Amino acid sequence: MYAVIRTGGKQYKVAPEDVLQIEKIEGAAGDAVQFPDVLMIAGEGEPTVGAPLIAGAAVSAEVVEQGRGPKVIIFKKRRRQNYRRKRGHRQDLTTVRILDILTDVKIAAPAADEAKRAKKAEAEVAAPAAEAEVKKPKAAKPAAEEGAEATPAAPKKPRAKKAE
């Protein structure tokens, strides 16, 4: 059985007992983590594809170590311009071991996320009411008095002709 998960902006095909390096996630060596973004599960019978995620599916893993990737050199040069720039980069990586592919799991969201969602929902409910109070009907422009005539626009000046 294998699954396709999404983490760190990338997708990984994982199976139990796989060891892989992913973008850095929080946790010390030995900590258990769950990946709730499961895009596909296959291997036993017909594959299950999410739209975009499979509801109730998760992949459990264990953090093996926190480390850094190889150094990448970024060198820019523009010839004959005396322009050279050299930079290096090492990506923070986490090595994880996949323990199990879980289906029909209720994933508990952290309390902070729940609070953010509740606050956002309250703001969305309050926003239309606030907008209704703020919006006032536009005052109609005063109509021209019946006896007064509108002033005509000044005629345009003729353009000068080009000398040939």
Question: What features would you describe in this structure?
Answer:
By secondary structure, the protein is mainly beta. It has a domain at 2-115. It is built from 1 helix and 10 strands, in the order E-E-E-E-E-E-E-E-E-E-H. The strands form 3 sheets. Strands 2-1-5-6 form a 4-stranded antiparallel β-sheet, with no helix packed on it. A 4-stranded antiparallel β-sheet has the order 3-10-7-4, with no helix packed on it. A hairpin with a 4-residue loop joins strand 8 and strand 9 (83-89). The longest helix has 24 residues, at 111-134. The termini are far apart. The model has no long low-confidence stretch (mean pLDDT 83).
Terminal-residue CA separation? 86 Å
Please compute the radius of gyration using only Cα atoms: 32 Å
Largest beta-sheet details: 4 strands, antiparallel
Structural class, please? Answer: mainly beta
Entry keywords:
15% helix; four-stranded antiparallel β-sheet; mainly beta; 38% strand; 164 residues
Topology:
Layout: E1 2-7, E2 10-14, E3 19-23, E4 32-35, E5 38-42, E6 48-49, E7 58-68, E8 72-78, E9 83-89, E10 92-102, H1 111-134
Antiparallel strand pairs: 1-2, 1-5, 3-10, 4-7, 5-6, 7-10, 8-9
